[in-house]
Amino acid sequence: METGIQALLAPLVVSIVALVLMMQIAFKRHATFSWLLGCSGFILALLALKPMAEITPQTVTPLLVSDQYSVFFSALILLTGLITTLLAKDYLKNRTGENEEFYLLLLLSSLGALILVSATHVASFLLGMELLGVALYALIAYPERGKLPLEAAIKYLILSGAASAILLFGFALIYAVLGTLSFAGIGQALNSTIAEDQQLLFLMGTAMIFTGIGFKLSLVPFHMWTPDVYQGSLAPVTGFLATISKGAIFAALLRLFIDAELYQHQALMLSLSALAIASMLVGNLLALRQDNLKRILAYSSIAHIGYLLITLIVYGVLQQPGLAVEAATFYLTAYIVTSLAAFSLLSIISSNTKDTELDDISQIQGLFWRQPILALMLMVALLSLAGIPLTAGFIGKFYIFTAGIEGSLWVLLAALVIGSGISIYYYLRIIFQMTMKVPVSESASSALDPVTTPLSLVSKFVVCLLIFMMLYLGVLPQTLMQYLGGLSL
Amino acid sequence: MLLLNLILILLIGGAIAWWSERLGTHLPRLIAVFVVLIDLAYLLNYLAGIPLEQLSVVPDAADPSSWLLAYQLDWIPRFGISFQLAMDGLSLVLILLTLVLGVIAIISSWNEKNDRQGFFQANILWTLAGVIGVFLAMDLFLFFLFWEVMLVPMYLLIAIWGHEGKAYASMKFFIFTQFSGLLMLLAILVLAILHHNATGIYSFSYFDLLATPIESGMAHWLMLGFFIAFVVKLPGFPFHTWLPDAHTQAPTAGSVILAGILLKTGAYGLIRFTVPLFPEAALDFAPTAMFLGVAGVIYGAVLAFSQSDFKRLVAYSSVSHMGFVLLGVFAWNSLALQGAVMQMVAHGFSTAALFMIAGALQQRLHTRDMSKMGGLWHHMPRMGAVALFFALASLGMPGVGNFVAEFLVLLGLFAVNPWMTAAAALGLITAAVYSLIMMQRAFYGKPDTDLVVTDFAWLEMTAMAIMIVALVWLGLYPQPVFDMVQPVLDSLSNVVSSTSAAVGAQ
Q: Residue B156 and residue A435: Cβ atoms within 8 Å?
């Protein structure tokens, strides 16, 4: 049992800190103290990863495993959670109401993500996903006033709930055919032949699983909720949703896909290819006409998950990892860091307004001259999303291209090239807005301009850290590549 | 190390120029000129130190140690990517051109009242650094990196300091190059993976990839990936449409760099990568490519003739002139290749000068519309005389470099395809038409007596004088350039013929 605790140290730390935080709120509300507790929760959990990493791989009950893969994603999740918490303090300081629970929900949601990335069983998979999801509903609806957050929360609640139900039904069907619910068990059972009439039932089950996950990852045609939810949520929450929620679900999907040997099914691979192509093209095309930064990023995230799906299909074609796992992990890392930077910008510039968010493209006009460091961060983030060299996103795209070529997926690669070509337009549009002259009315009253207010120390630290990470992964990717090359599932 | 320093000096110099903005508005451009001159001196100092014979040694295209200079540093060993730079005569000539035109570009913006001087000069220096990186990079991954990264400062130059239509022009410029760049990236990666499949090791080094066995159908696609990326940049018909917009809307220094240097990266890529990497496919494709070249020569000239915007006219003339480069490369014989390289250098000077004149006119008259000009010789005799010289250079007057270049291309091409030669030679006539009509409409005719403008001052005249001397020197005594480039062209031809022979033997 000793090793069991050591192997789950980080989730345990997060749970304990969440409990402490709940007690603190029950006894005495104090926003700064809650914030400190939240931060310390993430930092302690990050420190706890070191002893966890020493004893990998370690199976803890049939439900969870602690291996290098889960430790890596746990680090990513905790770091993202920490950065979100750091920025949330500034963001919430002008927003009235009881803000202590915000940090509690962040901790709980991250806990769900931690469980998700180490899940080896359908039960823990669903448990993690629901913990992540339920805390997110509350986070999205956090502001007590305002129509948009409420609309977003209800949309997310209903669609996400429906998706979970479909997912559950899919797993039930698979259980009916195979009689097992652990990922590896499904894989083994699939190797022995299944009766002809059961084949269809099994395919139905996997189709429903991918529908459910497709909703959560917002793949086309299950993407409808994404722009509204992104726009309605508070900027830090959107950042959290775009990075941790999607990242953890994709990481879990990758494990399910490989352990349960779903890649052996041609029909599934075909439908995945269709989903990928549709997501790459539709996501990028719909982003072209948007003027709201959050909506642009929402549509671009649809396209990026489409790019990521290519790695799964490569696995299916090669029937062995090849570069697929390495490519997916690197791309996901780059995407999480980059999106986090983009949403951090939104939450920093919106932290001096009271009720509204500055998320329209015109509101960052002339940002280069008003807040150079923030503009630099957004520019690097956008170039990274567009896949320009020297940024993390380029190495990610390099990986996807290379993996796709290994699998000779020419049609998917063509869609990737076209999609990225389209995407340059809307990323550049934002950069162009930032280079424009400062609008006259705002430069006249710059004392009142929320954007030009000097940054707090914490924000400065976060901005520098994110710029550094995006560039480091793009310029010197060897360290991470080497680490990811050693990962196995 | 010298090669790395060439790039680093410009990069760091750019940062210093940006920072110096806060000390004074004139300081950045002084620093920028100084930085480029240091870079140039650094390179010349090296050249002075090597024996002359070394320049005439035919390098082995597959062995960097036989080149003038080589530098290698491990970078991403996971995929066999290294920071590999190497210089031979061809890159040397183009780097010299880049640095000289860099100085001229900075001088051309001397009197423009651009705000944020520091950032402006920084972007110029960074673009130069990127271009030099393109000319030096011998690892295809690194080459692609420089190829893409040099776009960003150029994009900012157009987007921030451009003229009225800058949003559209900068966007178009970026998307065209980026999209075609993605095709090249795909081709590079396929090539590297084919090499990996054949040998079991990842490598992106030009020297390793030269001998990759490629099945013929695939080779055609890969060649096309490289070809499109380079022809968009060149620009060749029908991928030229970004160029008139970008050139017209860019600030003067931007136009000078764009026309003088950036276009040459496309031509360089064709000579260095497209043909040597895929000789068979390139040979099959040559008639199509030459046809595109001829089409560019004539189409560019006709459109140049019908422009009323001074800068647009010069921009279309670039399309026409660069068509000759495409012809020269795909004729692939010694004469035509020499002509293509000479055209790159001569066109760099002549077009840079014409864009400087266009910029000077816009600054003085606040218009680029030639119908609002006329009789300017009367007000600005020095500028008029200079413009006449470069108009004549552009139309290929014997005695300047442009003539040597176009003559050699046509001569080399004649041996390959006489009919194409005949069609391309029409370009010489049309060039005379648009160059003279430009002079006629802007500088001759009845002067507007109320107009008060200042003529070129000594600084601008110095820049012009440098380019005039360069062009006349290239026209009268082109041998030094040929001597530097010939060994490289020989070695590339060896690669092409040996690979073709090997394929033929199979």
A: yes
Predicted TM-score (pTM) of the model is 0.93
CB-based contact A389 B189, cutoff 8 Å: no
Q: CA dihedral defined by B201, B205, B210, B211, rounded to 10 degrees?
A: -20
Does the CB of A406 have a partner CB in chain B at under 8 Å? yes
Q: What is the DSSP string of B57-70?
A: S---TT-GGGSSEE
Tokens of A329: 């992990």
Q: What is the pLDDT of residues B150-206, one digit of tens each?
A: 999 999 999 988 888 888 999 999 999 999 999 999 999 999 999 998 888 899 998
What pLDDT sits at residue A448?
A: 55
Q: What is the mean pLDDT of residues A107-117?
A: 95
User: What is the distance in angstroms between the CA of the first residue and the CA of the last residue of chain A?
Assistant: 24
**Is A429 in Cβ contact with B171 (below 8 Å)?**
yes
A420 touching chain B per CB within 8 A: yes
CB pair distance less than 8 Å for B148 and A389: yes
Concatenated DSSP letters of A74-124: HHHHHHHHHHHHHHHHHHHHTS-S--HHHHHHHHHHHHHHHHHHTB-BHHH
pLDDT at B66: 82
Are the beta carbons of A105 and A134 closer than 8 angstroms?
no
Q: If we measure between CA atoms, which residue out of A423, A382, A471 comes closest to residue B152? A: A382
Beta strands A58-60; B81-87: pairing state: unpaired
Q: Give the pLDDT confidence of B308-351 residue by residue, as tens digits.
A: 899 999 999 999 999 999 999 999 888 999 999 999 999 999 99
Q: Which residue shows structure tokens 């000096």? A: B9
Q: What is the DSSP track for A163-221?
A: HHHHHHHHHHHHHHHHS--BHHHHHHHHHSPPPHHHHHHHHHHHHHHHHHHHHHHT-TT
Count of other CB atoms within 10 angstroms of residue A190: 18
Half-sphere exposure of A399 (CA within 13 A, CB side): 34
Q: Is the pLDDT of residue A240 over 60?
A: yes
B186 touching A (Cβ < 8 Å): yes
Provide the total of helices (H) and of strands (E) in chain B, helices listed first: 23, 2
User: Which of B152, B156, B186 shows the shortest C-beta gap to A388?
Assistant: B152
Minimum distance, in Å, between the CA of residue B194 and any CA atom of chain A: 9
Peptide bond into B51 cis (omega under 30): no
Nearby residues of B28 by Cβ (< 8 Å), 6 or more positions away: B17, B18, B20, B21, B117, B118, B120, B121, B122
pLDDT at B486 over 60: yes
Contact criterion met (CB below 8 Å) for A106 and A88: yes
- Burial string for A204-225 (b: 16+ CB within 10 Å, else e) reads ebbbbbbbbbbbbbbbbebbeb
Four-residue CA torsion sign, B118, B120, B123, B129: negative
Q: Which of A389, A432, A478 sits opposite B76 (nearest CB)?
A: A478
| A149 residue type, one letter | P
Contact A432 B159 (CB under 8 A): yes
Place of tokens 């006033």: A145
Q: Is residue A439 over pLDDT 70?
A: no
Instruction: Choose among B76, B149, B159: nearest Cβ to A389.
Output: B149
Residues of B in Cβ contact (< 8 Å) with A485: 78
Beta strands A58-60 and B69-76: pairing type? unpaired
Whole-number Å distance between alpha carbons of B60 and B1: 21
Task: Report the pLDDT value the prediction gives residue A286, as an integer from 0 to 100.
Answer: 94
Segment (H or E) for A31: helix A31-54
- Decide if A420 and B144 are in contact by the 8 Å CB cutoff: no
Indicate yes or no: CB of A417 within 8 angstroms of CB of B179. Answer: yes
pLDDT > 60? residue B27: yes
Complex ipTM: 0.91
pLDDT above 70 covers a percentage of chain A that reads 97
- Put simply, the answer to whether B189 touches A428 (Cβ < 8 Å) is no
